[in-house]
């Protein structure tokens, strides 16, 4: 059990005292344990803690050595794609003032990770003007041993890692040696440990690995209803007719569920996002199609594709199958010249929906369209797509909700008023996608206004610059003007 940077509670003493002072022991809190432990153990020195971090590394962890955790975390996120393993755990060794011979902080923060039998070091300097040396101190200086921000290098036994001290001294603080023993027990005691459970902490490899292990086939990017604004009534209806029946099947065992759901309304208002969030909320397998993918010029192939979609939906149950632009394969049967192509697909859809309704499988077909008026009336009847949910343009209240979702964790000036922006967006008939685009554009305008692009190009951008970024009212107004012009 990790209780802090200094170690773990002395369990032998605890056990001996337990029978005598049981009532008092039950009241010991975490802070008591930390301070009590400190009486019996001292913290190992910096090189020893460094060795513990190396011993803890496996193919799913990273070891960070830093004088500034906020800066190293930012740079680790910048260079995450250079760590080609799925990182599930991070060990951090904070280097405190006074622990280096003649420096207050490291020349460069750095990370070490293990891939197979090989160990790699990654420079986490906060800009390219800061460099570090990684080499055997006995070798003559070579420029290739100099690492700039984001550079990665294979570690070999005997390599010393530059700390900003005298690099060619007799005794370096950090010398890499392949660990003789494996295990994280010492690292758990004396280093900071983070189990990375938030997607924002992961590199792309990790996200893929976690999706495969925890959420196979569920909605992309972990979208949930809380990520959708302005559609409270639609969300409540989906909870009622889909989420709860999937999560509590025994309650709805003898109830005929509406397996077909139609989401209709103008484009870019959140219909697809609703489908992804619905799957995640229900813990269901998610599959998405554009209806045009199911069309074929070969006789009978379109109908076969439709049957395959429904067969997969049942076999994957509980499942959410999302079909976008359903109107392209479900137009009214009106005897027009296209009837010989369109009618067989409509007839196949009708048959598949009827068959799905008869099964007990919790498999739901969610179809989306911008043109409900084009759909064949038979498909809109009960037992087919019987649940119709309008997904309209958001009103002023909805736009404020959407803005707050997209503005979360963004550096926004206090002068910015969500109410004022929502009113302006409503007057210009913004949809949810417009709001997201506005927030993104405003951030770019802020970077430009503050001269951050120039610093990035000159390789002088650092953590202190990140702290200065703030999106102003004017940045949002410029972004809104750009979107309004595009809509005309």
Task: Note down, in words, how this protein is organized.
The chain is α/β, with parallel strands linked by helices. It has three domains: 46-211, no CATH class; 220-390, Rossmann fold, CATH 3.40.50; 396-487, Helicase, Ruva Protein, domain 3. It is 39% helix and 14% strand. The chain contains 17 helices and 15 strands. Strands 7-4-3-1-2-10 form a six-stranded mixed beta sheet, with helices on both faces. A five-stranded parallel beta sheet has the order 12-13-14-11-15, sandwiched between helices. A four-stranded antiparallel beta sheet has the order 6-5-8-9. Strand 3 and strand 4 (118-123) form a beta hairpin. Helix 12 crosses helix 14 and helix 14 packs across helix 17 (473-487). The protein is elongated, with a radius of gyration of 29 Å. The termini are far apart. Residues 1-40 and 197-219 have low confidence and may be disordered.
